[in-house]
Design brief:
By secondary structure, the chain is an alpha/beta fold. The chain contains 17 helices and 14 strands. The chain has a six-stranded parallel sheet with strand order 3-2-1-4-5-6, with helices on both faces. Strands 11-10-9-12-13-14 form a six-stranded parallel sheet. Strand 9 (313-317), helix 13 (332-342) and strand 10 form a beta-alpha-beta unit. The radius of gyration is 24 Å and the shape is globular.
Length: 434
């Protein structure tokens, strides 16, 4: 099938590459001309495991092309996915300016039936607004039909290609049999359950899913704080809870809070949508509050144990908001580094993928070639992102090179007894040891 993906960010680019990989002819669109030129040269602007290799293959097979022209993409495609950004306004409400602009541009260039599919995360009832925008901007001289659909993404950065090719389910919100048949045809090669709903329900499924997952994270972080106060081990608590099939172990990993481009933005947008519809979503407000508090609790632990921050050297391991991505959006490392710097601390840092983007955010941070260079001469280490390469470091070597053998583990990556045996002052989250 001939498909256009408008927006070549994380969601759009992964979607385009994966649809091309299962046999469709994809044209990806972005208004960033520099990005398009890089993609044409097969240079991938984001880090995602396997993305570059599969993109190269699909481009060489001529299943995947790139353009900055919505007009070109619209005329060549039957199905058009909208995958542009929906950033938060100051109120928390999703800013749908890019969605509206794209819908208007699609309409002005339509010359035959098109199925326009929301891929961006948008509040309920957005489909109706897209339909109206297209209707009033269609060429007046031609009678052109179209359908709107919602097809939310459930991709995790760091495993996005795997998630696309092996989904738990595919959700499609449609208002016509033709739209349903087209979307079923697109995803038929994946052989997975397809949940068919109305458009409003599909839009709600995305926000409800992300909000529930964020709730699980904040819940276990609240439990971690209690565990530290009563001398319990949150990792054992999470394990015991996780065996209950009604609860499950996923997203019960205590840490320094969620970040990234999805959870913070989607929680804000869902709270605002609820308020506008007349419901006070107090539960989600507390989820957000706990997430922000979790960062402050961990930062206070660092400040208490280091005592005077001015003049101290703090080594930071991990900058991206999660492993296997270079995404720095809402990364907890930003708050930690900026706060520590404001108190006079010197920061050394290393991340396997995110340093190019981090350099555009931080000033006066010493970026190192590896974890060992970070540790050398540092008064403590902060583990903020649980990259695989941090799991098996030579801690005897690290201990010898540090000014003080002190580690603050914001992801509970290491074994408490082992770190103490090696001679470290080791502080983690919810282990009843702080």
């Amino acid at each position: 099938m001939n498909i256009a993906i408008i927006g070549a960010g994380y969601v759009g680019l992964v979607t385009g590459v994966c649809l091309a990989n299962i046999g469709h002819r994809i044209i990806c669109v972005d208004n960033d001309e520099d990005k398009i030129q890089k993609l044409k040269a097969m240079k991938v602007p984001i880090y995602e495991p396997d993305l570059e290799a599969i993109l190269h293959k699909c481009v060489k097979q001529k299943k995947l092309t790139f353009t900055s022209s919505i007009k070109e993409a619209t005329k060549k495609s039957t199905v058009i996915f909208i995958a542009v950004g929906t950033p938060s306004k100051e109120s928390g409400e999703a800013d749908l300016t890019f969605v509206e602009n794209v819908a208007r541009e699609i309409a002005r260039n339509m010359d035959s039936y098109k199925l326009i599919v929301e891929k961006s995360t948008v509040p309920a009832a957005t489909g109706k607004r897209i339909a109206r925008t297209i209707q009033i901007n269609l060429p007046k001289k031609e009678k052109i039909t179209f359908d709107i659909a919602s097809n939310p993404e459930f991709l995790r950065e760091g495993s996005a290609l795997y998630d696309f090719m092996n989904p738990d389910r595919i959700v499609i919100g449609v208002e016509s049999k033709k739209a349903e048949e087209l979307l079923r045809e697109i995803y038929e090669p994946l052989k997975v359950p397809i949940v068919v709903t109305d458009i409003n329900s599909a839009e709600m499924i995305k926000h409800a899913s992300n909000s529930f997952l964020a709730t699980k994270i904040s819940f276990i972080n609240a439990i971690a704080q209690i565990c530290d106060k009563v001398g319990a081990d949150v990792m054992k608590v999470a394990e015991g809870m996780g065996y209950d099939k009604r609860i499950g172990r996923s997203f019960l990993s205590p840490g320094i809070g969620y970040g990234g481009s999805c959870f913070p933005k989607d929680i804000d947008a869902f709270i605002r949508l609820s308020e506008k519809s007349g419901y006070d979503f107090a539960l989600l407000k507390e989820v957000r509050h706990i997430n922000e508090k979790q960062k402050k609790v961990f930062l206070k632990l660092v400040e208490d144990k280091l005592w005077i921050l001015k003049g101290k050297t703090v080594g930071v391991l991990g900058l991206a908001f999660k492993p296997e991505t270079d995404d720095m959006r809402n990364a907890p490392s930003i708050d930690f580094i900026q706060t520590l710097q404001s108190e006079g601390a010197k920061i050394k840092a290393y991340d396997p993928q995110a340093m190019p983007k981090a350099k555009a955010i931080f000033s006066k941070v010493i970026f190192c070639k590896d974890a060992y260079a970070v540790a050398r001469g540092s008064d403590c280490l902060l583990l903020l992102t649980e990259w695989e390469e941090f799991k098996n470091l030579n801690f005897k070597k690290i201990k010898k090179s540090m000014r003080h053998a002190m580690i603050f583990d914001g992801r509970n990556l290491y074994d408490y007894a082992q770190m103490e045996k090696l001679g470290f002052e080791y502080f983690c989250i919810g282990r009843g040891k702080t």
